Amino acid sequence: MRQAITIARLFTCHYTSAPSCPACPVVKEVPVIIGSDGSAEVMPWASAASQKGARFVRFCDAFNLPLVTLVDTPGFLPGKDLEWRGMIRHGAELAFAYAEATVPRVCVILRKAFGGACIVMDSRGLGNDLCFAWPCAEIAVMGAQGAVQILHRNAAPEQRAELQDEYTERFLTPWEAAERGYVDEVIDPADTRSVVARALEALESSREHLPGRKHTIGPM
């Protein structure tokens, strides 16, 4: 446990403070938790954060440490300057790291999970083993305000509020994602620790066989 915490601190020293990468004694094999903070003033998934996350995922996979990903992200930080600095390429590094990891991977969506940042946070499309969500989780391409601005750009201001409420009620729920197979179970927040522990114990003997090839063509 002490060694795992030391490793997490080492990554924090050499990279940005987000995402958080602590170790947590949930089961006998200490899993490593990667978490994003959607309430941060600066969105966590800029270039440096993606590099830190990718490096950390690969490190844990190399030493057979289970990964628990806690998702709360409203998306990548937009801006031409960030794109010029390689935000898309570094985001792809994180996606490749998760997709190639063969250790047990459990994802828990706590609050917001929007757009491309949701995908690179160990989504079902990247092959996570189990995905859980809290009842308050919002899983969609984008938030209600942004969606209404694009889909109903000519709507009157008083109509937009009604459309945002309709979008939130219909799409920003974990039940829609669970119905489509992106979430395995919607859980009570109070049961998160026990649910994750049972999931890791069930995955303890799992083995993943990747197709034989020399190497992938990931972003460099």
Structure description:
43% of the residues lie in helices and 14% in strands. It is α/β, with parallel strands linked by helices and 220 residues long. It folds into two domains: 2-137 and 173-200, Alpha-Beta Complex (2-enoyl-CoA Hydratase, Chain A, domain 1); 142-172, no CATH class. Strands 1, 2, 3, 4, 5 and 6 form a six-stranded parallel beta sheet that branches. Helix 2 runs parallel beside helix 4 (87-100) and helix 6 crosses helix 7 (157-171). The longest helix has 16 residues, at 47-62. The chain is globular. The model is unreliable at 1-11 (pLDDT under 50).
Short description, anyone?
With 220 residues, the protein is α/β, with parallel strands linked by helices.
What features would you highlight for this structure?
6 strands; 9 helices; single chain; 220 residues; 2 domains; disordered N terminus; six-stranded parallel sheet; alpha/beta; 2-enoyl-CoA Hydratase, Chain A, domain 1
Percent of residues in helices comes to 40-55%
Provide the low-confidence segments as ranges: 1-11
Question: Would you identify the CATH architecture of the largest domain?
Answer: Alpha-Beta Complex
Average per-residue pLDDT, rounded, comes to 78
Mind telling me the C-alpha Rg? 18 Å
